[in-house]
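Reply to dn_fold:

You asked what the input looked like. This is it:
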Amino acid sequence: MMIDKNFMTTYAKVATHDGESEPIQIWAKDNDAYTGIGTDKLGIWGTVVGVDFDLCIADGACIDACPVDVFEWIETPKHPASDKKAIMIREGDCIICRACEEVCPVDAILITDPGDVVDSAAPAAEEAPTEAPAAEEGIETPIAQVESSVMSLNYAPKPTDWLDKMNEVLAKEELPSTGIEKAKSMFKDLRKETLDSLSRGNEYIALVDEDKCIGCTQCVYFCNFASIDMISHHLDARTIEFESKKAQIMDDTCTGCTLCVFACPVEAITMENRN
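and this is what came back:
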């Protein structure tokens, strides 16, 4: 299963939830398909950043991958797939890099360019109420129930062998969780500080300093729009000639998302105004 790519035309707007700067739209096939937080029917949340809460298993990959911290956790007790979901609390900050869409193991996320957003063609509900109040704190879904529900989703997971091995190593080392959480927090603060200092968006483009580029291809791997190619360069040394590869940005498809800037290990990529 995966998120319905046509949900904005096949689903109805049934409720809203408070976002940081604007309401988050909630979609469902009909009013009976959404019964609010604390139940097993949550529908699809968001518009530009759409997440099918009935598929979300709280893997957390989207939260880690997002370069602009669009997501945070929201508690969803009693839901069979997971007791928390990644909510697009800062949906307006999305830079359409599609990193979250790419890493979601259950294909529960769909990113839609704001220019492609359409009004719902499905009959709208009589009135869009706010989402149902959260259930009492302390209620947890049994692990066995969650695992059973996740297995019944019948999805084809993306390769995560490297992540599983890393988690096994960390578990054996018995590292203090407080230290790990502190490191994550420090990294997110640093990433946000770096992002705030970068110019980004469609009016900007990534530029590669060929003198610094080492041809590692990390930027190619992280780019979700195939906007980077590796170009051959012939170099003359004192005694031999050899070929090197340098990254080159394709102007027409670069979205200015800055993911390549973060991926570059030698700081060879910068953001410049297209004008």
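Confidence is low (pLDDT under 50) at residues 121-128, 135-158.
Hope that clears it up.
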